[in-house]
């Protein structure tokens, strides 16, 4: 009984000291944490831009080339769908290694945040494309038919009916992609991509510095929360259903 | 205004073929309200969608106004479709656009300038009685209001023809009534030609000048509503005035194909000394006329004379078993 109690108090003392140590250590860590945060945001931002640039048209094509779509082309769709599935089925860490030579060809190096943008984009494009496909399928077919009956061109239907009607879903999908990219970016850190993940692995894991580990966890959680809240706010604003 | 000849359409499903249209001829006069009535699966939706070529028939031709639609493709077909408005059962409004944005959509697509668009949208919303809802979103409107927006949108490019795909089927009776009278007044004011499909006999009765009964991809009968009612054995008359099937061999069904002032029944008993017992019947306003059907049991030695008397006065007499 007595030993239990003493142990408990000692534990409590350790926990408090540990937290205080961590807080006092924060200013020392901040310069590299800030740099890591910037790198993470940089990687995720560019990878998001490329994912939208490629994933959005890809998602649109997956819907329009389907049977009963605006421009049915089953063969094209089968090929696109297969490509997307290949991209989706590779674990990100494997994909990163698999595209190393492409990364070297495009960026000139496989190290650093800029190099990490290549595998991040390739990983997120099929992910976002499927999310785009799902939200476009939610659009009421009656509305598309009505647009047809009004003599609307197919491209105009995509631009003025399909995409605007699916916008809340598209934004929600974008937020999911960003959150996934943040998690991928931490993995990219493992093979020298830079950013918070890199920091957690090098300082936290390999040099046994728990403070770095905790700090990166906190920062990653904060970044994801900010991304998700901004996205939710936007979706609520745009939702007219 | 609408002339469709020999329309055939077959859908090929995985295991079987469905013949949705088996050679339908449709003629709708300019300024007329033409109703096609039938059960679901009768092919009426395919027929309606063939008129603006949302479905291209396998055989047959469709003319709307002066142009043969079935000969057009691409941009010229799109152009022609703008002259044909369409109203949908589930409204088919864009949820991301305001009422004004929805009504302006077909004008935007047709490349009408912003200023001209907002002027037209204002007029159209006034026409359908929704001026105060211009900035509302469809989700904030009732079913009847949504359909008014749908109608305003269909009218935006100033079409000559309006197609209505079960426009009132998703609405309650009072709202249905108001939408139907809106359609009728639009026909009167704008000289529209309206082709509508419905499964509700009530719609035919209330606003249609002409009608067709469709079954299994074919017209069973078609023509002006009042003419059809005055035709012996008319399906339309039977559907409009369902009579109880409780009579014996002496039962006679008497149709009044227009309004009459004469008190025929008392006249019969006095003149021909027959006994008349009314088994069932109804009187309805159809195409602006009081029309009715009676099922009566008539007995007496001068029964045949009595029936001839009725026929001579323009009533339609159908005897049981004949």
Please provide a written account of the structure.
With 241 residues, chain A is an all-alpha fold. Chain A has nine helices and no strands. The longest helix of chain A has 63 residues, at 2-64. Chain B has 322 residues and is α/β, with parallel strands linked by helices. Chain B has eleven helices and 14 strands. Chain B has helices at 44-51, 74-81, 99-109, 114-127, 143-155, 173-190, 201-207, 225-229, 235-240, 264-272, 303-312, and strands at residues 2-12, 17-28, 33-37, 59-64, 67-68, 84-87, 161-165, 193-198, 210-215, 218-224, 251-256, 275-286, 289-299, 316-319. In chain B, α3 packs parallel to α5 and α4 (114-127) crosses α5 (143-155). Chain B is elongated. Chains A and B meet through α6 and α7 of A and α2 and α3 of B.
Overall geometric form of chain B: elongated
Along the chain, the helix and strand elements of chain B come as EEEHEEHEHHHEHEHEEHHEHEEHE
CATH topological fold name of the largest domain in chain B: Rossmann fold
The proportion of residues forming helix of chain A, as a percent range, comes to over 70%
Number of helices of chain B: 11
* Residue fraction in strands of chain A: under 5%
The spatial strand order of the largest sheet of chain B comes to: 6-7-8-3-9-10
CATH superfamily of chain A: MetI-like
Mean pLDDT level of chain B = 90
Overall CATH class of chain A = Mainly Alpha
Following the backbone from N to C, one meets helices and strands of chain A in this order, namely HHHHHHHHH
Strand content of chain B: 25-35%
Q: Topology, pairings included?
A:
The complex is a heterodimer of chains A (241) and B (322).
Chain A: H1 2-64, H2 74-89, H3 92-98, H4 100-107, H5 113-137, H6 141-149, H7 154-190, H8 195-206, H9 210-238
Helix pairs in contact in A: 1-5, 1-7, 1-8, 1-9, 2-5, 4-5, 5-7, 6-7, 7-8, 7-9, 8-9
Chain B: E1 2-12, E2 17-28, E3 33-37, H1 44-51, E4 59-64, E5 67-68, H2 74-81, E6 84-87, H3 99-109, H4 114-127, H5 143-155, E7 161-165, H6 173-190, E8 193-198, H7 201-207, E9 210-215, E10 218-224, H8 225-229, H9 235-240, E11 251-256, H10 264-272, E12 275-286, E13 289-299, H11 303-312, E14 316-319
Parallel strand pairs in B: 3-8, 3-9, 6-7, 7-8
Antiparallel strand pairs in B: 1-2, 1-4, 4-5, 9-10, 11-13, 11-14, 12-13
């Amino acid at each position: 009984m007595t030993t239990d109690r003493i142990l408990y108090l000692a534990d409590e003392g350790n926990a408090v000291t540990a937290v205080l140590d961590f807080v006092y250590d924060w200013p020392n860590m901040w310069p590299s944490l800030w740099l890591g945060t910037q790198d993470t945001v940089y990687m995720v931002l560019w990878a998001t831009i490329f994912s939208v640039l490629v994933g959005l048209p890809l998602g649109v094509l997956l819907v329009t080339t389907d049977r009963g779509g605006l421009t049915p082309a089953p063969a094209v769709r089968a090929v696109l769908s297969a490509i997307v599935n290949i991209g989706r089925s590779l674990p990100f860490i494997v994909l990163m290694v698999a595209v190393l030579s492409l990364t070297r060809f495009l960026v000139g190096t496989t190290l650093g945040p800029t190099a990490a943008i290549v595998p991040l984009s390739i990983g997120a494009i099929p992910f976002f494309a499927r999310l785009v496909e799902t939200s476009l399928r939610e659009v009421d077919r009656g509305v598309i038919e009505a647009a047809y009956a009004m003599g609307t061109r197919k491209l105009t239907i995509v631009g003025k009916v399909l995409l605007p009607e699916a916008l809340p879903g598209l934004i929600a999908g974008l937020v999911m992609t960003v959150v996934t990219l943040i998690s991928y970016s931490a993995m990219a850190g493992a093979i020298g991509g830079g950013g918070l993940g890199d920091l957690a692995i090098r300082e936290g894991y390999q040099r046994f510095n728990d403070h770095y580990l905790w700090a990166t966890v906190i920062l990653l959680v904060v970044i994801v929360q900010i991304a998700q809240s901004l996205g939710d706010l936007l979706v609520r604003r745009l939702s007219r259903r | 205004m609408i002339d469709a000849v020999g329309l055939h359409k077959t859908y090929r499903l995985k295991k079987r073929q469905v013949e949705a249209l088996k050679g339908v001829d449709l003629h709708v006069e300019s300024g007329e309200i033409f109703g096609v009535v039938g059960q679901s699966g009768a092919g009426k939706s395919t027929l309606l969608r063939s008129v603006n070529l949302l479905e291209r028939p396998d055989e047959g031709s469709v003319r709307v106004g002066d142009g043969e639609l079935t000969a057009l493709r691409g941009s010229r077909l799109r152009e022609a479709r703008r002259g044909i408005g369409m109203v949908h059962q589930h409204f088919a409004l864009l949820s991301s656009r305001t009422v004004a944005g929805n009504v302006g959509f077909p004008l935007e697509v047709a490349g009408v300038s912003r200023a001209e668009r907002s002027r037209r949208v204002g007029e159209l919303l006034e026409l359908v009685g929704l001026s105060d809802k211009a900035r509302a979103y469809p989700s904030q409107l009732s079913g009847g209001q949504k359909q008014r927006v749908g109608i305003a949108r269909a009218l935006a490019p100033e079409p000559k023809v309006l197609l209505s795909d079960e426009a009132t089927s998703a609405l309650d009776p009072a709202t249905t009534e108001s939408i139907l009278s809106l359609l009728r007044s639009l026909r009167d004011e704008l000289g529209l030609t309206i082709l509508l499909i419905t499964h509700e006999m009530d719609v035919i009765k209330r606003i249609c000048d002409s009608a067709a009964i469709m079954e299994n991809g074919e017209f069973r009968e078609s023509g002006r509503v009042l003419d059809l009612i005055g035709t012996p054995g008319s399906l339309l008359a039977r559907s409009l005035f369902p009579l109880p099937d409780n009579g014996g061999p002496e039962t006679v069904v008497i149709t009044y194909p227009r309004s009459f002032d004469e008190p025929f029944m008392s006249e019969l008993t006095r003149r021909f000394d027959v006994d008349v017992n009314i088994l069932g019947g109804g009187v309805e306003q159809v195409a602006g006329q009081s029309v009715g059907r009676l099922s009566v049991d008539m007995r007496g030695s001068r029964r045949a004379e009595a029936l001839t008397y009725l026929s001579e006065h323009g009533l339609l007499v159908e005897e049981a078993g004949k």
